[in-house]
Write a structure and sequence with these properties.
Blueprint: H1 3-22, H2 27-54, H3 57-60, E1 68-71, E2 77-82, E3 86-93, E4 106-107, E5 112-117, E6 132-139, E7 144-147, E8 155-157, E9 164-167, E10 188-194, H4 207-220, E11 225-229, E12 232-233, E13 246-250, H5 257-269, E14 273-278, E15 309-310, E16 315-316, H6 323-340, E17 344-347, H7 350-354, H8 378-394, E18 399-402, E19 424-426, H9 429-440, H10 448-456, E20 464-466, H11 471-474, H12 481-486, H13 502-521, E21 525-529, H14 559-562, H15 568-585, E22 594-599, E23 604-609, E24 612-617, E25 633-634, E26 665-668, E27 671-674, E28 682-683
Parallel strand pairs: 10-11, 10-21, 11-14, 14-17, 17-18, 18-19, 19-20, 20-21, 25-28
Antiparallel strand pairs: 1-2, 2-5, 3-6, 4-5, 6-7, 6-9, 8-9, 12-13, 15-16, 22-23, 23-24, 26-27
Helix pairs in contact: 1-2, 2-8, 4-5, 6-8, 13-15
Length: 686
Amino acid sequence: MSPLNWISLIKLNIMLLIFTCILPTSFLFLSLSFFFLERYYLFQHCLKNIEENEGGLNKFSRSYQSFGVHRCVDGGLYGKEWAPGAEALFLTGDFNNWNPISHPYKKMDYGKWELFIPPGPDGFCPVPHGSKLKVVIHSKTGETLYRISPWAKYVAPEGKNVNYDWIHWEPPLQYIRKHPAHKKPKSLRIYECHVGIASPEGKVASYKNFTYNVLPKIKNLGYNCIQLMAIMEHAYYASFGYQITSFFAASSRYGTPDDLKELIDIAHSMEITVLLDVVHSHASKNSEDGLNKFDGTDSCFFHSGPRGTHSLWDSRLFDYANWEVLRFLLSNLRWWIEEYGFDGFRFDGVTSMLYHHHGIGASFSGDYHEYFGLQVDEEALVYIMLANHMVHFLHPECLTIAEEVSGMPALGCSVAQGGCGFDYRLAMAIPDKWIQIIKELKDEDWDMGNIVFTLTNRRYKEKYIAYAESHDQALVGDKTLAFRLMDAEMYTNMSVISPLTSIIDRGLQLHKMIRLITHALGGEAYLNFMGNEFGHPEWLDFPRKGNNESYHYARRQFHLADDQHLRYIFLNEFDRDMNKLEERFGWLASPLAHVSEKHEDNKIIVFERANLLFIFNFHPHKSFPDYRYKIALDSDAPEYGGHSRLDHNSEYFSEQFSHNHRPNSLMVSGFVFFVFSFCFSYSVYC
């Protein structure tokens, strides 16, 4: 441990010890300090072992350069696998007419096997680009198994086959990036997206379609980051990309690896950061085209027995204490950054990783005993620390995000501080709160204080990504905000030619208000799932037996937001201008907002952030038209489907009249609200 790290931890422990001396009831704080010290020691111990036994983290995490199969400089082929439960390994495929024993691997120490095939008589590689391969494994139980290498770079099904084939991918001409990645954005505005559904047509859309038809829309909307889902290969499309079968392969159903590289390259030319939704919390149970039982045992890569299976997801759970599993997962992260140019990761299922109970049946109340103790999987926690340390040490420009629901303390603190090292964590309580409010409460019963509490309740010095809804709320069985607010009337009354009903009017206004207050008050970054910005109708459902393999709901109808005769355009343009305003003022990168008003009777929320004044009127029928200031964004404007109740040509000034502990204030129709930096206010009416 470096002296600086020791000093930081010693300071932390001295502070906690002082708390303990002053407050006898705070013995818990001293206990927590030891938990953090223990975690940091375990991390340092593992890192030291890697340095001493593998030549350093840099070399260890580049194992994708040796494992799998690779064309050698002399034209030969080198192969390497880890299969500790195997009796013998062979490579077979098109190159040897599928002879299962002609090309054996040589057994090495620690369950590793290697193979070298010399170049052909013509000097070329004996396994040409695009040919099919399989690893043949003779198990200790006498079985002969045909497997895909865990390190396979490209897999695809042939015809209507369900199982995937391993296709050797080493094109003679590699894709050359034209545009360098840019620096981390100070304000992160994330567009969560899925390549396969990014088309109004009922089919699997392509990387090319996304590159040339969707990226320009995202750029125009003011988002500076995309989070790509379902990129790691998954045999079952309806899993939404969360049942991974080949960890090093980009999904072939959208196109080739070069197509994905071009997508990322073009995104970088638009100054858009590209994040991968990475799944290291579990893996598909598939064995013929997945990791499961690769060497014929249930313990290769995963825990053996019940500990190795997730009871709800019906998937396999990694053994994070296993040396080769660490090599595999760390190298996997490095591969996506260096081979494809990704700028970071959103780690899925972190709660499942952190606890032995995987969050199943757990109701997290916030009590610190829930986060420290025997229920915590320290092996998984150390892997998370290693992963974040590696990403940030070797690629400081990269970002990492945690999808974590329990509220684990220090998840978003640096590893040097004893934290897990994530740059951001998702504020997962916010969408749940909006759903609960809309489902259970009448408009006049909305609790302003509770809304503000939910939007501002986050751990000190940890950065949160706020969102009103994500892909979770769009899936079949749930409802988007727009659908909850307007429901069946979205099918009949979204045309500007039809009368504006009270349900559509209320839905449009609340959709805008909910998203802006979440954007401005809820965190240090913002996320939106594709299509939700304009209130995409209906739900998201992938083709499966339950819907007769239909693609009808596995698409995004972007054309609705471009139609001048439909009210979706109002929501789309408001979302764009909301992001553009944030880009101009940078409230996401600013200190926490100062909330000065939570008026329950008038349903008013007022706060200031980034030299802007935000005023929200959630009252169902009471308006306050006499605001005094210059308006920068108004959801009641006609271009956003509003009613034009405010005069945008007037400019007023605040008075030196103290109110709500602020030196200046302004009068709003008989109610006094503060203004600290008199640049902007936001007002909206239902």
